[in-house]
Write a structure and sequence with these properties.
11 strands; eleven-stranded mixed β-sheet; about 40% helix; Amidase signature (AS) enzymes; single chain; alpha/beta
């Protein structure tokens, strides 16, 4: 059945790209359909902070013109995408979910945006996020919370809840997120979508507004494993403008996603990332998914990573320390918000007033923690010790990957919680990332994909797959196989069960 006979916004990116290539539909038609969908539902979801209809339509028309002229186009040419508002795009607002960057329009594109343009992907707009990516619920945005399309009273995860919600609400078939401690994977888990944190350095950080430079990583988000792989291939690769960018070849993630075969793979269950503290329905769906992987021909064994129990504490010293340094650039002197300069005040007073007005409570909290951890007399005891723990966690991963090809765990300990439920309890909020943080500390690659609905509340559950650095293709091989088996069982993707807005 031709794609034109279906609702365009419910198609996956690969199907849309194929239909456009076959002349069944134009990029302009696909783009307009998604812009109409945003207009229809985003007042309830609030996935987007900024939509660019004129620019998106112009880009789509250009793709259609070049396709008609027979010019070579990328495999995702003409497919719409939602971009997390932490990546710069020339001439378009980039707020990072913060008041302190109000009015700033970057004079340059991030490398991710450059590569999306080169791939002929159509950028629809910028998505909501926890302020400066500090949060697990997208409740810490200065512009209001994003809501989970599965239940509008619940969070869509964070910090990239806007990108995940845009996918789940069928406002875009592709999205870009960033992952510092789980900000791609945890939103994917609670919205029934797919998200990948590539190997650290696998996707350029040039033009990504920094939170914690040794942890931040941009990555692809979509509703299927193949779509995520196609987007991964489009944005990955070495960039001389990023000193942390890896020069090694990008693994063939698309071929791995299409192979979707786990026969002969050794899969490790991480003992420290399951059991106590996990919602019963999450554990149930995880156990069922592991059983499916076994049925598909994988060998599943339990492994221990004993230092993972210290990951949360180490992370919440390293991240705030790096954030306190990175966010010092927001001073009201050069760009963005400036408060208090209407009176005769000193530079120091203007800086203090700007930061007081521009930063939210969670950002201030983490800056203070980080500044304290880096202060004279405490550096070795806090930041230095946390870095030693980081080394031990990396060694745990290395030892585990000597025995297995990939590791698996639940992505998040619970399904999506209610908006407001944990916003006043920072520790409870931080615990949402307990399973995802170790990957960022070690720089490994990881994926979250949907594995069903928790019986207690009917909300999505995600499974996390972790791979060694530069072995991102293993995520797609295992994830593609599990997704195919689940689709065979259900008769459709899990996202098709999401309530219609």
């Amino acid at each position: 059945m031709a794609v034109m006979e279906h609702d365009l916004v419910r198609q996956d990116a690969a199907t849309l790209a194929r239909a456009m290539g076959d002349g069944e539909v134009s990029s302009e038609e696909v783009t307009r359909a998604h812009l109409d969908r945003i207009t229809a539902v985003d007042d309830r979801v609030h996935a987007f902070l900024h939509v660019m209809p004129e620019r998106a339509i112009a880009a789509a028309r250009d793709v259609d013109r070049r396709r008609a002229a027979g010019e070579p186009l990328g495999p995702l040419a003409g497919v719409p995408l939602a971009l997390k508002d932490v990546l710069t795009m020339e001439g378009e607002p980039t707020t990072c979910g913060s008041r302190i960057l109000e009015g700033w329009r970057p004079p340059y594109d991030s490398t991710v945006v450059e590569r999306l343009r080169s791939a002929d992907v159509i950028i629809l707009g910028k998505t909501n996020m926890d302020e400066f990516a500090m949060g697990s619920s997208t409740e810490h945005s200065a512009y209001g919370p994003t809501r989970n399309p599965w239940d509008l009273d619940r969070i869509p995860g964070g910090s990239g809840g806007g990108s995940a919600a845009a996918l789940a609400a069928f406002e875009a078939p592709l999205a870009i997120g960033t992952d510092t401690g789980g900000s791609i994977r945890q939103p994917a888990a609670v919205t029934g979508t797919v998200g990948v944190k590539p190997t650290y350095g696998g996707v350029s950080r040039y033009g990504l507004v920094a939170l914690a430079s040794s942890l931040d990583q941009a990555g692809p988000c979509a509703r299927t494993v193949l779509d995520t792989a196609l987007l991964h291939a489009a944005i990955a690769g070495h960039d001389a403008r990023d000193s942390t960018s890896i020069s090694a070849p990008v693994p063939d993630v698309v071929a791995a996603a299409r192979a979707a075969d786990v026969r002969g793979m050794r899969i490790g269950l991480v003992r420290e990332l399951s059991g106590e503290g996990y919602q019963a329905g999450v554990s149930q769906r995880f156990d069922e998914a592991v059983g499916i992987l076994t049925d598909l021909g994988a060998e599943v064994v339990e492994v221990s990573c004993p230092h993972f129990e210290y990951a949360l504490a180490a992370y919440y010293l390293i991240l705030p320390s790096e954030a306190s340094s990175n966010l010092a650039r927001f001073d009201g002197m050069r760009y963005g918000l400036r408060a208090g300069d209407d009176d005769a005040r000193s530079v120091e007073e203007v800086m203090a007033l700007t930061r007081e007005a521009g930063f939210g409570a969670e950002v201030k909290r983490r800056i203070m923690i980080g500044t304290y951890a880096l202060s004279s007399g405490y550096y070795d005891a806090y930041y230095g010790s946390a870095q030693k723990v980081r080394t031990l966690i990396t060694r745990d991963f290395e030892a585990a990957f000597d025995k297995v090809d990939v590791l698996v765990s639940p992505t998040a300990p619970t399904t999506a919680f209610r908006i407001g439920e944990k916003v006043d309890d920072p520790l409870a909020m931080y615990l949402n990332d307990i399973a995802t943080i170790p990957v960022n500390l070690a720089g490994n690659a990881a994926m979250s994909l949907p594995i069903g609905l928790a019986p207690e509340d009917g909300l999505p559950v995600g499974l996390q797959i972790m791979a060694p650095p530069l072995a991102d293709d293993r995520l797609y091989r295992a994830g593609g196989a599990l997704e195919a088996a689940l689709v065979d069982r259900w008769g459709h993707l899990l996202i098709e069960e999401a309530p219609s807005l």
